[in-house]
Amino acid sequence: MAGFAGRDAVIVEAVRTPIGKGKANGALHDVLPVDLLAHSLTELVKRSGIDPAQIDDVITGAVSQVGDQAVNIGRNALLAAGFPETVPGTTVDRQCGSSQQAIAFAAQGVIAGAYDIVVAAGVESMSRVPMGSSVLPGSDPFGAMAQRYPEGLVPQGISAELIAAKWGFSREQLDDFSAGSHEKAAQATKEGRFDNELIPINGLTTDEIVRPGTTVETLAALKPAFYTPAYEARFPQIQWAITPGNSSPLSDGSAAVLITTSEVAKRLGLRPLARIHTSTVVGSDPLYMLTGVIPATEKVLRNAGLSLSDIDLFEVNEAFAPVVLAWAHDVGADLSKTNVNGGAIAIGHPLGASGARIMTTLVNALEQRGGRYALQTMCEGGGMANATIIERLAK
After folding, report:
1. At what angle do helices 354-369 and 98-112 cross, to 10 degrees?
2. Where is the Thiolase N-terminal domain (predicted)?
3. Active-site entry in 39, 182, 277, 379
């Protein structure tokens, strides 16, 4: 992604909060979302040592932009973090990929010459602003779109059930993958692989949701989460395999990534961690909704001029276990290189924050393992997906 006058976009710092349970008893429930995001922004500036007055924009992903997350939380959080009033901020919604899209917008702005230094961030407090809060009683967010799908669209959980049925994944396969996510995340936590990216908050020092010792047997005891007689009648092929154990949990958290050019980084004495090589976004079938990661991966590789074998690490958001399994099956990716420190099923999925959270984890994992290329992709509500390839830069 070399742009105007040969400009590039590099990540020079990335931080995140630990992910808390998105419930009233979660460790981060008492933290207002604006303050949750401000915490990551403050630490990002502190670690990088830059003067926040040099930041050209703060682009923030947030999904439920209502209540505590209303009125442009990106701008409010940067002011809460003590940034100068001259620093602007905006908030974007690409559903679950909101902050991955924020990273793409930031990189594009830097490459185009619109920015020299920009922050891409994300936040979601699902305990304080429940999923779906922005759909007010009596409102109709779909309008004429509903005429295009007269049989009706479905919640993501039903989409996950449809994927499991279409690709033929058994409940045991889904639970086995999910237990593995917890095992990897627990091991990464134990070995301190997250330490470099985490910023403790409100007494929480590690991800709250990870459950060491999770097994297929314990997950097998959980009941299907999305069963209804109406959907059973409409979709007789569904085996009702999606449970809370093989789905991403409700979560609270924030993350922030500092992006600039190689030239500016050198001038300011900042070390580029990775170059944003290529990014893309695609639309996909809104009934299956979560399968966009497949064409997004194919498109970003094609645009980058790279092959699957060039990629050292993959991060695929674990919205539901069958999403990652279907992706790996169709693109031919190696699951041993995927979500190597665990994924959202174990760590959590604070919607608007997840893209930046995953990128923060991916940058660190790539450096820890000495790889060159990594690919991140996320499925998104309404049938979309972002994909980004980063390239680690030598010290």
Report:
1. 70
2. 10-262
3. 379
Is residue 41 assigned to a domain? yes
pLDDT at 394: 79
39, 182, 277, 349: the active-site residue: 349
Measured distance between the N- and C-terminal CA atoms of the chain, rounded to whole angstroms: 20
pLDDT digits (tens, 9 = 90+) for 19-63: 999 999 999 999 999 999 999 999 999 999 999 999 999 999 999
**In this structure, what CATH number is given to the domain that contains residue 102?**
3.40.47.10
Of 4-8, 204-208, 246-250, 313-317, the range with the lowest mean pLDDT is: 4-8
pLDDT the model gives residue 6: 80
User: Per-residue DSSP letters for 135-183?
Assistant: S-TT--S-TTHHHHSTT----HHHHHHHHHHHHT--HHHHHHHHHHHHH
For 121, residues 6+ apart whose C-beta sits below 8 A from its C-beta are 37, 40, 41, 44, 58, 59, 60, 61, 74, 77, 99, 102, 254, 255, 256, 257, 356
pLDDT at 395 over 80: no
Look at the chain and report how many structural domains it folds into.
Answer: 1
Cα 242 to chain centroid, rounded: 21
- Known catalytic membership, residue 96: yes
Find the catalytic residue in 39, 96, 182, 277.
96
Q: In this structure, are residues 340 and 365 in contact, taking their beta carbons and an 8 Å threshold?
A: yes
> 218: which residues sit within 8 A by CB, 6+ positions away?
179, 245
Does residue 50 lie in a domain region? yes
- Residues spanned by the domain of 96: 9-130+249-268
